[in-house]
Amino acid sequence: MKHIPIDNPSVCPPDMLSGAEGDSRDNGREAPLVHSFPPIADESSRLLILGSMPGTRSLEMNQYYGNPRNFFWRILYELLGEGAERAASAEYEERLAIARRNGIALWDVIEACERPGSLDSAIRNAVPNEIPDLLRHCPAIRVIACNGTKSHSELLKQYGDTPELRSRTVLRLPSSSPVPTPQFRGLDDRLVVWRELLAPHLPNRSGSRD
């Protein structure tokens, strides 16, 4: 799958974020400025799954959803008929290949932000990725699935009125983060909702779309 080239270090000094507003300090310390990864997308992509910003572990590993506690790859493998157990032992390149074969693209809504730790609630001074530009380069993407509330709210805040967004279906999925919420405690309850929302947009077992 083609990686669209973007200069994208995972961490750099906070003063490189020019023009940002707000307090960049956390308990007297400057929060690190983190950057997301380049998109994983090509001309065959049909579904774009957008996170908010990779967590600390994922940035360290230079992998989308690299934290083994994150439910993302287990959910995706289960939805694609590969089995959640296989996802746990799969190499990263195999995971990307599974996504590519099924027309799934990956990116994050936020290109850079100040964030101590990995929680979305700690994100400050977010600078968005150029989502409309990606959609213009990959016009076959017709569905955008936001992985979590922060991804969805930030996407609509930044680009909700653009023609690239308005001409596509936008879904809000429960976050694949391992952090439990009152509504979503683990893998199984998240999987139910992901399956309900994404099943119409994923290939069936014969390789065609419903």
Q: Could you explain the architecture of this structure?
A:
The protein is an alpha/beta fold and about 210 residues long. Helices cover about 30% and strands about 20% of the residues. It contains 8 helices and 10 strands. The chain has helices at about 55-60, 70-80, 85-90, 90-100, 130-135, 150-160, 165, 185-200; strands at about 10, 25, 30, 35, 45-50, 105-110, 110-115, 125-130, 145, 170-175. β2 and β3 (about 30) form a beta hairpin. α2 (about 70-80) crosses α8 (about 185-200). The longest helix has 12 residues, at about 185-200. It is globular and about 45 Å long. About 35% of the residues are buried. Residues about 1-30 and about 205-210 have low confidence and may be disordered.
